Amino acid sequence: MLPARESTAALLLVLLVGDVVAVTRYRRDVDWRLIRGLLPGLLPGLVLGTWLLSVLSDTAMQRGLGVILLLLTGLQLAMRRRRAGSDAPVRPWPWPARLGVGTAAGTTTMVANAGGPVMALYLLGQAVEKKRFVGTNAWFFFLINLTKLPFSAGLGLLEPRLLLLALVLAPCVLVGAALGITLIKRIRQQAFELAVLGAAALSAVVLLVT
Protein backbone atom coordinates (compact mmCIF):
# COMPACT_ATOMS: atom_id res chain seq x y z
CA MET A 1 0.00 0.00 0.00
CA LEU A 2 2.96 2.31 0.61
CA PRO A 3 6.44 2.78 -0.89
CA ALA A 4 9.16 0.91 1.01
CA ARG A 5 10.52 3.97 2.84
CA GLU A 6 7.12 5.20 4.01
CA SER A 7 6.02 1.68 4.95
CA THR A 8 9.11 1.39 7.15
CA ALA A 9 8.07 4.43 9.19
CA ALA A 10 4.40 3.41 9.34
CA LEU A 11 5.25 -0.10 10.48
CA LEU A 12 7.70 1.23 13.07
CA LEU A 13 4.87 3.10 14.81
CA VAL A 14 2.62 0.03 14.67
CA LEU A 15 5.38 -2.23 16.00
CA LEU A 16 5.92 0.03 19.00
CA VAL A 17 2.33 -0.67 20.07
CA GLY A 18 3.04 -4.40 20.01
CA ASP A 19 6.39 -3.87 21.73
CA VAL A 20 4.73 -2.23 24.73
CA VAL A 21 2.35 -5.18 25.11
CA ALA A 22 5.17 -7.71 24.72
CA VAL A 23 7.61 -6.18 27.20
CA THR A 24 4.79 -5.80 29.73
CA ARG A 25 3.71 -9.42 29.38
CA TYR A 26 7.22 -10.95 29.22
CA ARG A 27 9.12 -8.46 31.38
CA ARG A 28 10.66 -11.25 33.47
CA ASP A 29 11.48 -13.59 30.58
CA VAL A 30 14.50 -11.76 29.18
CA ASP A 31 18.16 -12.72 28.85
CA TRP A 32 20.05 -9.42 29.02
CA ARG A 33 23.33 -11.22 28.41
CA LEU A 34 22.22 -12.12 24.89
CA ILE A 35 21.06 -8.56 24.23
CA ARG A 36 24.28 -6.99 25.55
CA GLY A 37 26.29 -9.16 23.17
CA LEU A 38 24.58 -7.52 20.19
CA LEU A 39 24.79 -3.88 21.29
CA PRO A 40 28.28 -3.09 19.87
CA GLY A 41 27.05 -3.80 16.34
CA LEU A 42 23.62 -2.25 16.72
CA LEU A 43 24.38 1.46 16.28
CA PRO A 44 26.68 0.91 13.24
CA GLY A 45 23.89 -1.20 11.76
CA LEU A 46 21.30 1.54 12.28
CA VAL A 47 23.61 4.11 10.70
CA LEU A 48 24.30 1.80 7.75
CA GLY A 49 20.57 1.16 7.34
CA THR A 50 19.84 4.89 7.37
CA TRP A 51 22.42 5.44 4.64
CA LEU A 52 21.03 2.57 2.53
CA LEU A 53 17.53 4.04 2.83
CA SER A 54 18.83 7.28 1.36
CA VAL A 55 20.66 5.77 -1.63
CA LEU A 56 19.03 2.46 -2.65
CA SER A 57 15.84 1.87 -4.60
CA ASP A 58 12.93 0.00 -3.05
CA THR A 59 13.57 -3.04 -5.26
CA ALA A 60 17.25 -3.22 -4.45
CA MET A 61 16.52 -3.07 -0.72
CA GLN A 62 13.94 -5.86 -0.92
CA ARG A 63 16.16 -8.18 -2.94
CA GLY A 64 19.17 -7.58 -0.72
CA LEU A 65 17.20 -8.29 2.45
CA GLY A 66 15.72 -11.44 0.91
CA VAL A 67 19.15 -12.82 0.09
CA ILE A 68 20.47 -12.05 3.59
CA LEU A 69 17.53 -13.76 5.30
CA LEU A 70 17.73 -16.78 3.02
CA LEU A 71 21.43 -17.21 3.76
CA LEU A 72 20.89 -16.88 7.50
CA THR A 73 18.04 -19.39 7.43
CA GLY A 74 20.19 -21.87 5.52
CA LEU A 75 23.00 -21.37 8.04
CA GLN A 76 20.65 -21.99 10.95
CA LEU A 77 19.30 -25.18 9.36
CA ALA A 78 22.85 -26.43 8.83
CA MET A 79 23.71 -25.70 12.47
CA ARG A 80 20.59 -27.52 13.70
CA ARG A 81 21.45 -30.55 11.60
CA ARG A 82 24.98 -30.56 12.95
CA ARG A 83 23.71 -30.43 16.55
CA ALA A 84 21.08 -33.14 16.02
CA GLY A 85 21.79 -36.11 18.25
CA SER A 86 24.59 -34.31 20.08
CA ASP A 87 24.50 -33.89 23.86
CA ALA A 88 27.16 -31.17 23.83
CA PRO A 89 26.02 -27.91 25.45
CA VAL A 90 25.37 -24.92 23.20
CA ARG A 91 28.31 -22.56 23.37
CA PRO A 92 27.91 -18.77 23.36
CA TRP A 93 28.71 -17.28 19.98
CA PRO A 94 32.13 -15.59 19.74
CA TRP A 95 32.20 -11.79 19.72
CA PRO A 96 32.79 -11.41 15.93
CA ALA A 97 29.61 -13.42 15.29
CA ARG A 98 27.64 -11.34 17.81
CA LEU A 99 29.02 -8.15 16.26
CA GLY A 100 27.87 -9.34 12.83
CA VAL A 101 24.40 -10.26 14.08
CA GLY A 102 24.01 -6.91 15.86
CA THR A 103 25.02 -5.03 12.72
CA ALA A 104 22.75 -7.14 10.51
CA ALA A 105 19.81 -6.70 12.90
CA GLY A 106 20.32 -2.94 13.05
CA THR A 107 20.65 -2.61 9.28
CA THR A 108 17.70 -4.80 8.31
CA THR A 109 15.37 -3.34 10.92
CA MET A 110 16.24 0.20 9.83
CA VAL A 111 15.78 -0.55 6.13
CA ALA A 112 12.52 -2.49 6.28
CA ASN A 113 11.73 -3.46 9.88
CA ALA A 114 13.04 -6.89 8.86
CA GLY A 115 15.37 -7.49 11.79
CA GLY A 116 12.98 -10.00 13.37
CA PRO A 117 14.17 -13.02 11.36
CA VAL A 118 17.82 -12.09 12.01
CA MET A 119 17.24 -11.92 15.76
CA ALA A 120 15.11 -15.08 15.67
CA LEU A 121 17.87 -17.06 13.99
CA TYR A 122 20.39 -15.76 16.52
CA LEU A 123 18.23 -16.81 19.47
CA LEU A 124 17.54 -20.22 17.93
CA GLY A 125 21.28 -20.65 17.55
CA GLN A 126 21.58 -20.14 21.31
CA ALA A 127 18.91 -22.80 21.99
CA VAL A 128 16.75 -20.32 23.88
CA GLU A 129 13.53 -21.67 25.48
CA LYS A 130 10.37 -20.24 23.87
CA LYS A 131 9.28 -17.84 26.64
CA ARG A 132 12.81 -16.53 27.08
CA PHE A 133 12.99 -16.27 23.28
CA VAL A 134 9.87 -14.09 23.15
CA GLY A 135 10.88 -11.95 26.15
CA THR A 136 14.43 -11.33 24.90
CA ASN A 137 13.20 -10.60 21.38
CA ALA A 138 10.53 -8.22 22.71
CA TRP A 139 12.91 -6.14 24.81
CA PHE A 140 15.56 -6.06 22.09
CA PHE A 141 13.20 -4.65 19.48
CA PHE A 142 11.43 -2.32 21.88
CA LEU A 143 14.79 -0.65 22.57
CA ILE A 144 15.73 -0.72 18.87
CA ASN A 145 12.45 0.78 17.71
CA LEU A 146 12.73 3.61 20.22
CA THR A 147 16.26 4.25 18.95
CA LYS A 148 15.04 4.25 15.34
CA LEU A 149 12.52 7.06 15.88
CA PRO A 150 15.03 9.94 15.57
CA PHE A 151 16.64 8.29 12.52
CA SER A 152 13.25 8.02 10.78
CA ALA A 153 12.40 11.59 11.78
CA GLY A 154 15.72 12.77 10.36
CA LEU A 155 14.81 11.18 7.01
CA GLY A 156 11.46 13.02 7.07
CA LEU A 157 9.46 9.78 7.20
CA LEU A 158 7.28 10.40 10.28
CA GLU A 159 4.41 12.20 8.56
CA PRO A 160 1.11 12.98 10.36
CA ARG A 161 -0.86 10.66 8.06
CA LEU A 162 1.36 7.75 9.12
CA LEU A 163 0.64 8.51 12.76
CA LEU A 164 -3.07 8.28 11.93
CA LEU A 165 -2.53 4.97 10.11
CA ALA A 166 -0.72 3.55 13.15
CA LEU A 167 -3.61 4.64 15.38
CA VAL A 168 -6.11 2.88 13.12
CA LEU A 169 -4.07 -0.35 13.08
CA ALA A 170 -3.33 -0.40 16.83
CA PRO A 171 -6.46 -2.44 17.74
CA CYS A 172 -5.42 -5.11 15.23
CA VAL A 173 -2.02 -5.31 16.91
CA LEU A 174 -3.68 -5.83 20.29
CA VAL A 175 -5.79 -8.68 18.89
CA GLY A 176 -2.67 -10.26 17.39
CA ALA A 177 -0.84 -9.90 20.69
CA ALA A 178 -3.63 -11.70 22.53
CA LEU A 179 -3.53 -14.54 20.00
CA GLY A 180 0.25 -14.77 20.30
CA ILE A 181 0.15 -14.96 24.10
CA THR A 182 -2.38 -17.78 23.88
CA LEU A 183 -0.40 -19.66 21.24
CA ILE A 184 2.92 -19.51 23.09
CA LYS A 185 1.35 -21.31 26.04
CA ARG A 186 0.17 -24.23 23.90
CA ILE A 187 2.85 -24.78 21.27
CA ARG A 188 5.66 -27.23 21.97
CA GLN A 189 9.28 -26.09 21.88
CA GLN A 190 10.23 -28.04 18.74
CA ALA A 191 7.14 -26.88 16.86
CA PHE A 192 7.89 -23.32 17.99
CA GLU A 193 11.44 -23.49 16.60
CA LEU A 194 10.27 -24.94 13.28
CA ALA A 195 7.60 -22.24 13.01
CA VAL A 196 10.22 -19.53 13.57
CA LEU A 197 12.48 -20.99 10.88
CA GLY A 198 9.56 -21.33 8.49
CA ALA A 199 8.54 -17.71 9.06
CA ALA A 200 12.11 -16.53 8.39
CA ALA A 201 12.29 -18.52 5.15
CA LEU A 202 8.87 -17.25 4.05
CA SER A 203 9.94 -13.66 4.73
CA ALA A 204 12.98 -14.15 2.52
CA VAL A 205 10.93 -15.63 -0.33
CA VAL A 206 8.35 -12.84 -0.19
CA LEU A 207 11.07 -10.20 -0.35
CA LEU A 208 12.68 -11.90 -3.34
CA VAL A 209 9.57 -12.50 -5.47
CA THR A 210 7.38 -9.45 -4.81
Automatic annotation (TrEMBL):
The keyword Transport appears for this protein: yes
Residue stretches spanning the membrane: 38-56, 63-79, 99-124, 136-157, 163-184, 191-209
Pfam families from the UniProt entry: TauE
Recorded GO CC terms: plasma membrane
Similarity section: Belongs to the 4-toluene sulfonate uptake permease (TSUP) (TC 2.A.102) family.
PANTHER family per record: MEMBRANE TRANSPORTER PROTEIN YDHB-RELATED, TRANSMEMBRANE PROTEIN YFCA
Protein name: Probable membrane transporter protein
Natural source organism: Auraticoccus monumenti
